[in-house]
Amino acid sequence: MNSRNGLLVELTTVLSFDVLGPVRGRYRGRGLELGPARQSALLGVMLTRPNVVFSPDELLHSVWGDRVPKSANKVIPTYIYRLRQALRVTGEEAVIERIRNGYALRIEADAVDATHFARATESMDAATMMSADDQYGQVASALEMWRGEPFEGLPGPALASERAKLHEMRLALLMHRAGLDIVGGNYAAAVLDLSDLQERNPMHERVACLLMIALYQSGRQAESLAVYSRIRLRLLDELGSEPGAALVTTHQAVLTGDQDALDRICGYPLVAAPVKNVAEVSVDAPRPSFPAEAVVPRQLPLPLRHFAGRGQELAALDQVGRATGHAFCVIVGTGGMGKTSLALYWAHRHADRFPDGQLFVDLRGFSAAEPVAVSTVLCGFLDALGVDPAHVPGDIEAQAALYRSVVAGRRMLIVLDNARDADQVVPLLPGTPRCAVLVTSRNRLIRLIAQHGAHPLPVDALSAADARQVLLDRLGEERLAAEPEAVADLLAHGGGFPLALGILTARAQSVPGLPLASLASELRDAPTRLASFDDEDRGAALPAVLSWSYARLTAEQAQMFVLLGLAPGPDIGLNAAANLVGVSAVRARTTLRGLEDAHLVRQHVAGRYRMHELVKLYAASRAEHDLPADVRPAALRRLVDFYLRTAHSAEHLLEPHSELGQVAEPSADCVPELLDDLRAAWTWFVAEHPVLPAIQRLAAEHGWHAQVWQLAWTADTFHRRRGRRDEAAIAMWQAGLDSAVEVGELAVEISVRRRLGQAYTRAARLDDATLHLGRALSLAEQAEDVLAQAHAHRALAQALDQQGDAQAALDQATQALRLFSELGHQTRIADMLNAVGWYRAKLGHYTQGRTYCEAALTLARRLRHRTVEAGALHSIGYVLHHTGEHTNALRLYEQAQDLYHDIGHVDGTADALEGIGHVYQALGQDVQARDAWQRVAELYATHHRTEDRARIQRLMANLDNGSR
Fold first, then answer.
1. Domain 117-280 belongs to what topology?
2. Average of per-residue pLDDT across 682-705
3. C-beta atoms surrounding 402 within 10 Å
4. CA distances from 398 to 236, 386, 405, 407, 431 (A)
5. What are phi and psi of 333, to 5 degrees?
6. Which of 247, 400, 452, 622 would give a disulfide with 427, using CB separation of 3.0 to 4.6 Å?
7. DSSP-derived secondary structure for 315-374
8. Which residues bind DNA (predicted)?
9. What's the pTM value of the predicted model, to 2 decimals?
């Protein structure tokens, strides 16, 4: 037994919970403090389904319903933390476990009193083989567990639903006990109990039946008939329906004094005697709606011939119901994602678990036709179950009650496919936990989860391996092996979408000689890609399937959906989406939640939304047809302006001494994101840097040239500090240069060309760097722009230093220092004082170098220029190390490293740590040297700096070999 299972067994023996009354927890007999009401309610929800993973969203809706607090993202982790503290009964916090993106309460179901109560209730279904005394004893033991209102005083729709279920169970036990009293001749006790039950359940027909029999057997026929009159009038008045067959039959038996019929009605299911046909009670008695013999429907459609993957989802379906005995699952996902195929595959594989039959209906919640009416489904199910259509009531509530009565006690599987909303599903739910229910929907159906205990099972795109297995199963290994590149394209652009893969393979199968490369070529271009998944059969065409989801959206959701199709980049943040549509963030969140519920977007991390590639193509195609001519450009301009304005404020937080002044005037209704500090700015750039190049391309396509080069500038500090030597910065600056040349602004071209040269320098593409930097200097000299000349000299110094020419770098830095001094540009004077000192130190002129660097440090501290301050500390540390002052060098290197780390400067942090390693090596402290270099290697590995990492690893290898 592993440690986890061992802990679970230990907890089961010492940890228990009572929910049949106020919620209590005990550890080794000692009470546990479970906290305030909502915290206890959260625990109560988890106690209803031990060992099942609850998402934070599910817990929120279970406890708060539709009134989720504004601080929702903080509430659940806080409550979980407090509950873990309260339940910390071993050496580890193991009772509530974080699993993926949710939480599970790790206890055995038997640790909860409601489990024993439910088990006792279910055992009464099989009680016909037990003696009356044994049955009475079991019922009494179960009822003794009841201490009051279940989950007493705890809020939330989930517990309200669970409370109702437990009351139903208790009612069943009380009725069973009353039936035993009647069978045993204890009529007075039965009348007393049943009168109380009827007062609290005035329209419960089984209670009325038993009370009528108990009264009749007590010699009180008139009172018995009065019970029937009262409930009949109430049913007609409140529900508009006549009493059910069992109550009518009881009434007839009391009228005629048919003791045989009364014994039979009361005895079922208390005794094992065979049941007579109720029609035999009296010639005049109405025929009951129940079938005389059980009918076993087998309505499952054929499953797909080829089904691949979904191992994790199938395993989750296997687990549903094992902990609680209540198998109810909602399979949710985008249209065409294979929800129905998954449900049918599982249903056929486990059909033997449901010997009393399987019911299936396509509710058409998302299809070209109108959704199926609930009454139509109920009538169809009742017919399949053998109920005479002539005896099916016309009222939906009565139909649902009859349906629940017919399936009561049976082991059946009900598959409700393609449900639009919870209202379509709730009347079709059986009233017994013996039946399993599978629902598929494109909506999340939160009410089924929160109020009816459904287990949500999201279905997303197939993994690459599973998608390839689909192609393999349908096309064969030989055909795939013959065109590996085409197969890779089919998998890449099919996006793991089962319907899309099915369409592609069907086209390939229909023409055996068709090269897969011809299909792949259609998919490479976005304009033709979506058309490749069209089909004459609209039910099998991806655009048509998606159109049915689109048609169900509100006007606000539809506009958000199509505009998201136009938004560039891999995902979009909440505030960006709000600007795209031109609404507040609060309103955008609500609209996005609707699209999430419809599984047209996915919130893959908090506050960021993503569309499947094919769904996004469909949304973009709808935008072409459905958006008014002026909406699209205005929305995209707001989006570009949002990114530019927010990036501009973020860049100034990263580098307060940034030289980028005001940016282009934004749209009137653009609302940039408010960033409070350096950490917020860095976090924003980390999240948005994959999107920014796409936003810049969008601006270029629309001719918004100022925004193009300014976007490159706003991202430059982030690119420099994050330490990756990739092409992102080069690409953005090249786009910026193209726009600067397009508008013909020489000053802008000079600045942008210089920045492009610096990006090439950082990427070690030094020929390109010197080409652009030389051109920038030449243009600056032609324009007699002294400041631009100084910047160009400074940038050339960096490029020449990278080439290993410290003397040439010193010459350029000296020129830059002279020009900046003439202009009185204090921040750049500080920067260049350090640069001149650094290059002198590299040339071995340590005394002169230290003088310059110390001057730079003094000025940087006065200006509060942390980047230059860190650089000067590093330079002085280098000088001290090379002049034998290792202890002082170490102190300055560490100060530099701390500063670089604080501002998120990866290159500076790595350089300072490398210097620290060299100092430790010089001091003979090899362990500390290795530790510093190992941290550098890890930094370079994180930022994909392969060559730099290899260089540091060689330093460590030399250290191990004793080389100095």
1. 1.25.40
2. 92
3. 24
4. 11, 17, 10, 14, 14
5. 170, 170
6. 400
7. HHHHHTTTTTS--EEEEE--TTSSHHHHHHHHHHHTGGG-TT-EEEEE--TTSSSPPPPH
8. 4-107
9. 0.57
- Give every CB contact of residue 275 below 8 A, 6+ residues apart in sequence: 264, 268
* Architecture of the structural domain at 840-964: Alpha Horseshoe (1.25)
Token pair 């919130």 is found at 603
For residue 269, CA distances in Å to 172, 405, 487, 733 come to 12, 13, 61, 81
Fold of 3-115: Arc Repressor Mutant, subunit A (1.10.10)
Are 892 and 933 contacting, i.e. CB atoms less than 8 angstroms apart? no
- Whether 211 and 194 have beta carbons less than 8 Å apart is answered as yes
Contact 427, 407 (CB under 8 A): no
- CATH topology agreement for domains 3-115 and 311-458: no
**Contact in structure between 679 and 650 (CB atoms under 8 Å):** no
pLDDT digits (tens, 9 = 90+) for 553-566: 898 999 999 999 99
CA-based end-to-end distance of the chain: 52
DSSP letters, 276-319, are PPGGGS-TTSPPPSS-SS----B-PPPPPS-----HHHHHHHHH
Q: Which residues contact 836 (CB under 8 A, 6 or more apart)?
A: 810, 813, 814, 817, 852
How far apart (Å, rounded) are the C-alpha atoms in residues 139 and 48?
22
In the chain, where are the structural domains located?
Answer: 3-115, 117-280, 311-458, 464-533, 840-964
Kindly list the distances between the CA atom of residue 585 and the CA atoms of 342, 403, 569, 576, 599, in Å, as whole numbers in the listed order: 36, 46, 20, 9, 20
CATH superfamily membership of 311-458: P-loop containing nucleotide triphosphate hydrolases (3.40.50.300)
Burial category of 446 from C-beta neighbours within 10 Å (exposed 0-12, middle 13-18, buried 19 and up) = buried
Residue whose token pair is 């030399």: 958
Is the separation of the CB atoms in 433 and 326 below 8 Å? yes
Tell the burial category of 873 from Cβ atoms under 10 Å away from its Cβ (0-12, 13-18, 19+).
buried
- Long-range contact pairs involving 805-813 (C-beta distance under 8 Å, separation at least 24): 806/839, 806/842, 806/843, 807/839, 807/843, 809/839, 810/836, 810/839, 810/840, 810/843, 813/839
- Please list, in sequence order, all residues whose beta carbon lies within 8 angstroms of the beta carbon of residue 229, skipping any fewer than 6 positions away: none
SS3 content of the chain, % helix, strand, coil (to 5): 65, 5, 30
d(C-alpha 580, C-alpha 702), whole Å? 16
Q: What Cα–Cα distance (Å) separates residue 894 from each residue in 145, 654, 739, 849?
A: 66, 21, 43, 20
pLDDT in tens, 897-951: 999 888 888 888 888 998 999 999 889 888 888 888 888 888 888 776 777 888 8
- 383: burial class by Cβ within 10 Å (0-12, 13-18, 19+)? middle
User: Which residues, in sequence order, are CB contacts of 373 under 8 Å at separation 6+?
Assistant: none
Mean pLDDT of 86-102: 70
CA distance 750 to 748: 5
